[in-house]
Design brief:
This protein has 1 helix and 8 strands; from the N terminus they run αββββββββ. The protein is globular, with a radius of gyration of 13 Å. The chain starts with 7 loop residues before the first helix and ends with a strand. It is mainly β. This is Cupin type-2 domain-containing protein.
C-alpha cells in the first residue's frame, strides 16, 4: 500500500459483500479494515489481541457474555483480548476495524465466515 489520502466513504462504496474485511491502511504492524455488516456474526475471541470497532454508519451491537455494547456513528469500542464477543447489526452497518496484521476475523471460532482481508 502506498502512502496517500484515504476516503473512507469511497472505500466502503467500492464493495457490497458483508462480513468481508477490506484492508484500507497499515499502521506499523496493524491493519485498518473497512467492512459492511448485517445480521449476526459468530461468537469468537482473539486470544492475543484487542480489537477496535469504529462505527462509520448505522448501528452495531457488540454482544458480550455480560451485556451488550451498542454503537452508533462516530462511536468505538475496544474488545479486550480473550473476550468472547459477537458483532451484530439489524440493518447494514459500516465499520472500521483496527487490529494487528494477520488477525483472523473469526478468531478462535474459525468456520465458513473466516475471511482473509483484501486490499481495497
Amino acid at each position: 500500500m502506498t502512502t496517500h489520502k484515504v476516503n473512507i466513504a469511497e472505500k466502503l462504496a467500492a464493495f457490497t459483500e458483508q462480513w468481508a474485511p477490506h484492508r484500507i491502511a497499515r499502521v506499523n504492524d496493524y491493519e485498518v479494515k473497512a467492512a459492511k455488516l448485517q445480521g449476526e456474526f459468530v461468537w469468537h475471541s482473539h486470544e492475543d489481541t484487542d480489537e477496535l470497532f469504529l462505527v462509520v454508519a448505522g448501528t452495531l451491537t457488540i454482544r458480550l457474555r455480560d451485556g451488550d455494547v451498542v454503537l452508533g456513528p462516530g462511536e468505538m469500542y475496544v474488545v479486550p483480548r480473550g473476550t468472547e464477543h459477537c458483532p451484530a447489526a439489524d440493518e447494514e452497518a459500516h465499520i472500521l476495524l483496527f487490529e494487528p496484521s494477520g488477525t483472523t476475523n473469526t478468531g478462535t471460532a474459525g468456520g465458513t465466515r473466516t475471511r482473509e482481508p483484501v486490499d481495497a
